[in-house]
Amino acid sequence: MAPKPKSSDPKRDRLMALVLLLQNATKDKPLTQDEIIRDLTIDDPKSNKLMKAYEGDRLAVRQKFERDKKDIRSNGIPVETSGSGDGTSGYWIDADSMAAVGIFFDEQEERVIRLALRLYGFGKYGVFSIFNDGPGTDGSLAISNYYNPLVRAIKLKRAVSFDYRSTKLKNRVVEPLRIATFDGSSYLVARTKEDGVLKSYKIDRITSMPEVLPQKFEVSDSDSRNAESWSPNFSVAESAIVLTVVAKKTYAELICQQQPQATSREKKSGLVELNVPFDTPHAAMQFLLQAGERVVLEDPKDIKKEFISWLKEVNKGSTPSTEGLVFSEPERSDVLGQTLLLLHAVYASPEGLTVGELSSRFAMDPADVRRIMDRLFTLEIFDGSNNFPAHITRIDDEDDEDPDSLEILYLPETDNGTQLPNSLMWRDVFELNVALREATRVYSDSAILSAIDKLEEASGVYLGAESSGVEAFIPEITDAVNNKKQITILYTPGQSDETRERAIEPRDIKRLNGHTYIRAYCTTSEGWRTFRVDRISAVLSTAQVVQQRVKDVEENWLTQIGSGGEEVIVFVDANSRWLFEPLPGARWAVTKNDESAVMFRVSDEEFLNNLMLQAGPGARVSTPKFEKAGHQLAKRILKNL
User: For residue 131, is it within any domain?
Assistant: First the structure.
């Protein structure tokens, strides 16, 4: 066994040591601040000795301890506090606050979990990293540590507090009932604390780590039913709104496929008239905006009037100065969060994981992996005994003399008979639940349902995962991916209204923002292309692949829009923000007047034109090159009306 290397980052060691120490404390036997300050030790980076984690004068030590508690809580790890008769406070971390209760999947359930995560991965730092051997993939839901306290609060039926941005930034205290996902976006469905009104909160707009409060609440049967039936649509109309539109025959066929309740009749001109029903004015408007030039609205007059008004305001109005705006960095795992993720990944691997495997899974530099894991391996608490909860051991290859070797192996250590913490965090439970529910649309397998039952039993959270899109050919495409087949399809690309025949060889299938995409080699265009399933109007034939294709060089094919093209800044109001939140690589800033600005990259101007058309009033491009984005498109649609 290798000698114990010493640390070079006292703050990270101190935070990790404090987290592990407080996990060993309990509500009945909490640790006082004096006990922690007196006894907690970490490695001295300048020597081979231990040093006290908290040193200095009394005030400085107290302030450092308070800052550390705040840092730990900012990671969603609640440091609980209890008072005693003598006025002192005790601290502990509830073991279930980070890791979920024990969930054990059988071999078939693990198999379907891997399939589900391939379809609906959650990125580098998600549950994908625990259940798959390779690196994390592009995720379709944004990764957020906020899921940890939210799922736990729902399970415990405890109120939760967080800062939330709608029209303005404001603190909310609510009683959480359910987390629901619709078209790739997550919502917290909760009752307001003050008046018990059922409301929804988009998780992307929560701006502070939710704090699970001590106040418990009860949930009536009617409240549960209302939470389960909640949907993000605007208020439902009393009767269906029926749009009468005209389109070319090929596009009309695609509309009828996507809107099964639509009726159609062919006109003498060769065009097709369609009657398409919608439950809400919002849904009807979204259909028109997404269809763009491909349909002409004939009726009803009130929707037509609203549509004309909308088109006249596309990307209009002045924009504030961008000088001094600070845009958020894309979310990444913090130091303490990375440490916990690595620790839990090793706990889930009885045969251990090497530095190379961990760095690949979490897209981290091998040197950072080695430093973090070696700190856990060498971490000692109190008197130098081995009785601390970071149960990790390290094994080196005796024939490998390279100090930077990727083959250093870290194993979960259970020699003392201590049961390891569960490898699943509350966020992982949520992510697995979403992935499995999405997978039921693609795979028919009883193991998926039994795995969902185990997750629901453990978390007590009923999760809705729904999509408004109709994707009829997912089974055929999934079969082609799994069995290396070529399929010939009829496809309507982008904003076109012309259907084209394509021969493709699908290799991967994933979900993003409510749509299913496939990555395939297109023999028609002789290259790798990405196709959206709801734009396929027919599968004409199937055959086995007989030829080796060139390697696909685009690793992040699902979110490549976020890394290429030109930078654009758009100012958006609360009503249009939802369109921009799912954009890969989107970064946000807030002006002094509390207005939101989003920065992202655009490689296709037509994409930006259609995005601004859908955003309508309240969204304005600030970047000079694109300040008229959407104007010509809106004028052409107005001319047709």
Answer: no
